[in-house]
Amino acid sequence: MASGGFFGWLRHNAEHYLLVDSQKQMAERHGTVAPRSPKGAKDFFWMKIFAPIYAVLPWSLRSTIMKSMPGSHRKTWASPATPQGASSALDQFEFVTPTVSVSKANGNPPEKKESTVAQIVGTRAQAGDAIVDYDQKLFDDIQAEAGEKAYIFMHTVPYEGSVGLVNMLTCTRINRKGFDTSLINRKGFDTSLVLYGPGVLMASATRGFPTVGSEAFPGHLAYNNQLQTFMKEGGKVLACRFAMAALYGMRETDLIEGVQPIHPLDILDCTLTARREGALVMQTWTL
Length: 287
Prior knowledge:
The protein has helices at 5-30, 40-56, 59-68, 86-90, 163-176, 222-232, 241-248, 265-277; strands at residues 93-96, 99-102, 111-114, 117-120, 150-155, 183-184, 190-191, 193-195, 237-240, 260-262, 280-285. It is of the alpha/beta class.
């Protein structure tokens, strides 16, 4: 017998055989394969007696029967406890009932309906206001120890989202914390910010409209400006030659001055070098 005693057994079987009966009716209506025919006294009772009788009962009677039976369907959600200070927060809301006219498609006059909305009551934030606690900081302001290194890899499309610019700002902050971002590896390349895939487009020196270097909208040249700031502060920027030429038709002379083009095989070697040295690595990927 199903959990819940007799009523649990009754509800379980009723749900099961009513579902089977519904599948049978749908199969007959659409000419598809129906569930198997009843086998044994149990199947016969539920499918040939219970289901047909249940189908002709009025909904009010069905609902009364279901509500009278014990079970989880009768449980209600407990009212949540009012947290401390919640009443004062609710005081910030004023509930009003505006009347809205809704036109009908059949040409009849509009029907007026009422709906309740919450309007926030209070003063507007002004320029210079602090709306959160800007001074609280939970973690120590970590500074790099001597010899600590960082590799930041960017495989992201400029302007398709904020992640590229945000992590470029993070890269600048890492540089300011004293991490060694001018490591000379065995192949002679300064390693720091590694642009590959669509990330090489960040380092385009030909960006601008209507002319190169012209800002068509506020923030248009943010990538260029931030890369130049990073390099002026000692950071090194590398760009994959494969992505430049094979994917975007960029020439080495199209790169921002100071950006070092590298062989595509160096992307993996940069990663492996960072692994061996226990360096900080940040990977930025967007598709």
